[in-house]
Amino acid sequence: MKSRLEKHSEKRRGKKMKTQSLFLVIGIALLMSSPALGKNPLGPEYTIHYARGIIIDGDVGDWSNAEWVTYGASTVARTGGYAWNAPDAVCTFAMMYDNEALYCGARVEDDYISYNPNTTFYAWWERDGVQWFLDFTNNDEQEILYWPDYLVDFENYAGNSKWLPGEMIIAIGATEDQTDITTRRWPVGTRDGDRSDWNDFILPDGTIARGEVNEQWESVVVIDGTNYTIEVKVPWSSLEKSKYFSDPEGVDPANPTALGDLTADDMSNLGWELLLPDPLAGSRIGLTHLCIDTDLPAGGFDAQVMWVGDGDNDANWTEAVFAVPVRIGNWDLY
Q1: Which residues, in sequence order, are bridge partners of residue 284?
Q2: Distance CA 92, CA 82 (A)
């Protein structure tokens, strides 16, 4: 018998998903998905539970129903991840959601925090911090459907490290000054297949975006010695503002970096999908997590560890599923 999770996923993606089992634990009403593997054969599936009453203050004590994941250099081989240049930091992260926002939390145990604001402003990889790598389309062939006349080598393009609409990074630096231009970076996939923190990109309205700072995010970092805690609230509305991957007028297949005037039917025929799944509950996105462990006092590309995958190729990440409520009487329990 198919679960509600499968019905939601099949309706959204139009193909058969892995069988899931839902268990309701009466008393605390905890919804769990059965253990499953994501896109990476070793990558454990992650569940984004529903948030209730989270306050962004650097104290994650109100994240009790979140799924927390801990990883470091000694553990990522088991989850299909990688460690570069012997990082010694250990990272624990979680995600939650509600109708207003996506919430990201992390705790990092380190022996030295290096955060030099004089490093290149968009180069989040030169400073200690954590990153959530997200692919909201979660579709390896999404790129092919966008511009069937634009891409030459479809198979190689869809499977390599190109970044396209719907793929993004939430990068938060290990500094309590969250107003600095070097933190809260927001690299996104562009229509020409580059990540926005790699090259300067000028939007049609004249805005220069390069791994931009998202001013709508609410973030707090608390440093305790050489350890730090991060809390971030990412309003759904803040993600929709990017013309990189959420253009209501559509895109011109012959000129994918320019805004077009495609109709809804045109977008449907091209396979265009909205950035955010609708409904969220039961939908799946691509996910991995990265921790930068730069022990250089001046900053710079030093060491890092990734939970699942080996870098930008989202085919090697895992999947996250938004928890589905269980209806009991007049109540939706998450």
Answers
A1: 321
A2: 16
